[in-house]
Specification:
By secondary structure, this protein is an alpha/beta fold. Helix content is 44%, strand content 14%. It has 8 helices and 8 strands; from the N terminus they run E-H-E-H-E-E-E-E-H-E-H-E-H-H-H-H. The strands form 2 sheets. Strands 2-1-3-7-8 form a 5-stranded parallel beta sheet, sandwiched between helices. It has a 3-stranded antiparallel beta sheet with strand order 5-4-6, with no helix packed on it. Strand 7, helix 4 and strand 8 form a beta-alpha-beta unit. The chain starts with 20 loop residues before the first strand and ends with a helix.
Length: 279
């Protein structure tokens, strides 16, 4: 008997490979998932200018990363994961521009606005176009953060998530923003649905009852791996696992000769692993 609803995720027509450069931009959920990739020695860039919650700020991050002055500082992504948290933005009254961080300035300096479905879709389209200009073969994964925004009210938080979901669907279903990118290069990954429909229990939330717990994020990472990892990537993760465990080992006597030998052997294994996978 089944006592929960498993979210069905279609098989991806392309896979993440060990040599791929991965970019995670967006909400703190992007930080949480990106950290797991970095911990497993993937070539990973995560929110280089801080957490970005809305589609406009995600675009701003990409524009800053790949501006002429910064272009050489960041690797060209093979796979980009864009994680959206809200459609709420803050506009600085003085300039009329959307800011990515209020920097603890007084609230009276800003106007809060909710982006429409069409506005969100336009920002996402521009993000795709920018990434495509950097790498025509880039793969882009959209996801909506399962983190609820209590400060808006729970009903308003749901409306915000619905706007983001509809914007992504608009982009993926119509591709009406003059994209030359093929549809198979864009995909939606249901992080939001996994937490709300599949896990659906407060034991999968952190103590604030708003953020997913570490266990929930680990489970989403596993579902992500099932969807996108190639066989070579699965071997890569398995081969690195004992090395990672050794690197994380905390000895009783770090000054002992035995531990120094252990560290030297672990370093040799790590270098051999990097050479095998061209790290």
């Amino acid at each position: 008997m089944e006592f929960r609803t498993i979210v069905s995720i279609p098989e991806s027509s392309w896979k993440v490979e060990p040599h791929h450069q991965l970019l995670f931009v967006g909400s703190c959920f992007a930080d949480n998932i990106g950290k797991r990739f970095a911990d497993n020695l993937f070539l990973t860039t995560v929110n280089p200018f801080g957490v970005m919650y809305n589609p406009a700020s995600v675009l701003h991050t990409l524009e800053r990363m790949f501006a002429d002055s910064n272009y050489a500082a960041f690797p060209v992504p093979d796979v980009a994961v864009l994680s959206l948290g809200t459609n709420h933005v803050y506009i600085l009254k003085e300039t009329g521009e959307i800011v990515d961080n209020c920097e603890k300035r007084p609230r009276r300096l800003f106007t809060e606005k909710e982006l429409s479905v069409e506005e969100c879709a336009d920002y996402l389209c521009r993000s795709v176009q920018l990434l495509q200009n950097i790498n025509p073969h880039v793969r882009i994964i959209f996801t909506v953060s399962p983190i609820r925004y209590a400060k808006y009210g729970f009903h308003e938080s749901q409306l915000s998530k619905a706007t983001l979901l509809m914007a992504i669907n608009t982009l993926l279903s119509s591709l009406n923003c003059q994209l030359s990118i093929v549809n198979s290069q864009l995909i939606y990954f249901p992080s939001y649905e996994i937490v709300l429909d599949e896990l659906r229990d407060y034991r999968f939330y952190a103590s604030d009852m708003l953020h997913p717990s570490e266990q929930a994020v680990d489970y989403i990472y596993e579902r992500f791996a099932e969807t996108f990892f190639s066989e070579k990537t699965r071997r890569f993760v398995e081969d690195y696992r004992p090395i990672k465990q050794a690197l994380n080992h905390r000895p009783f006597n770090p000054d002992s000769e035995e531990y120094r030998k252990f560290i030297d052997q672990t370093k040799e294994k790590l270098e051999a692993f990097k050479a095998r996978y061209q790290r």
